[in-house]
Amino acid sequence: MTYNYCRNLINTLSFHQHNVRFCTTLNMGELISTYEETPKELAYKIKETREKIRNNLINGIIPTHCLNCIYKNNEYITQDKITKIDLFYWFHCNCSCFYCSYRDETKGEFSDKEKIGNPIIYDTIKELYRLNEINTEELDVNVGGGELGVLKEFPKLIDLFLENNVKTVFCESSGIKYSKAVEKLLRKGKGCITVAVCSGTPETYKKIKRRDKYRQVMKNLKKYVNAAKKDKNAPDNIYNVVSKYIILENCNNNLTEVKKWLSESQKCGIKHVEVSMEFCWGTKSKKGQKIEDYNYEIFKYVENECKNLGLLLRENKTSKALMEKGVY
User: In the chain, helix, strand, coil percent, each to 5?
Assistant: First the structure.
């Protein structure tokens, strides 16, 4: 029997800055904790909350915040363990992007120095493995929030996931600081790194990121590509290094800049790209407004150019859903 729900409600565990929740959409999922517990207590609470939500769904009780979610679907409710973990729990970054949704928290400040995030999370995940709550064969991990290159416990977390045969760790990074932990993931064919370059010139990059680090980022992208090439048993690893372009109004929303971005990405050896609307900012400040025409134009241009250049284009599902809807 299928139910009107999304499996993310019980299979996706999201660690945020101030709380732990299930689901990872902009609507947010079921609140589990605000980090008052010990790692053991939190792991058991996660286990109990998963079972409670699952039983509610079987009895037709759907969380109200899910009713208008664009990802809601008719699916089978299964006994699946956790198959996805989101690590979005720290603000610390070495960039100061003007569009960043965390700028209110960071006050626009940035630093290249390492900083501890929340040590309880490592121990909680370790306990969840012990409780057999995680599907070790199917687990995908998303790393975002602040910058992974300046998160002190990041290498330790990566080692924990690798020790437990993680399927894939998807990393989002500024690309300013090269990460040996990401390199390890790429060499083993267990990770993907996405760097939002958003520009094809140092001038546009500095305008967006508030840092004059464009050349350094492109150099590090090339190093990641070369690291991915090293493992002959995983020839497709090169596609696990992704250059991303977030479309920003009155900044880079023109085909000239997009063309330069594609060209510079190729020079680094990039074979995989992504283009995205700035939906976090847009859905807050433009709610109900029509999606701008330049988004459709840029998406179509990139799609055609990727075919011409032999690049793989990764679909941005949130952007696609919003553009099909036509309004923020």
Answer: 45, 20, 40
Q: What is the pLDDT along the chain (328 residues), one digit of tens a residue?
A: 555 567 778 889 999 989 999 987 655 678 899 999 999 999 999 999 999 888 887 887 877 777 777 666 666 666 679 999 999 999 889 998 888 877 666 666 778 899 999 999 999 999 999 999 999 999 999 999 889 999 999 999 999 999 999 999 999 999 999 999 999 999 999 999 999 999 999 999 999 999 999 999 999 999 999 999 876 665 567 789 999 999 999 999 999 999 999 999 999 999 999 999 998 776 677 888 999 999 999 999 999 999 999 999 999 998 999 999 999 8
- 185 touches 194 (CB < 8 A): no
Instruction: Enumerate residues 6+ apart whose C-beta is below 8 A from 41.
Output: none
- Name the nearest CA neighbour of 147 among 120, 121, 175: 175
Helix (H, G, I), strand (E, B) or coil at 63: coil
> Is the distance from CB of 182 to CB of 173 less than 8 angstroms?
yes
Question: How far, in Å, are 94, 150, 303 from residue 111 at the CA level?
Answer: 5, 8, 36
| Nearest CA among 144, 156, 158 for reference residue 191 | 158
Whole-number Å distance between alpha carbons of 260 and 200: 4
Residue 277 per-residue DSSP state: E
Rounded to two decimals, the pTM is 0.89
Count CB-CB contacts under 10 A for residue 67.
10
First to last CA, the chain: 33
Residue 236: other Cβ atoms inside 10 A: 12
> What stretch of H or E contains 89?
none
Task: Go through the chain and tell me how many residues it has.
Answer: 328
Please, what is the angle between helix 255-267 and helix 214-229, to 10°?
50
Question: For residues 216 and 174, is the Cβ–Cβ distance under 8 A?
Answer: no
Q: What are phi and psi of 160, to 5 degrees?
A: -60, -45
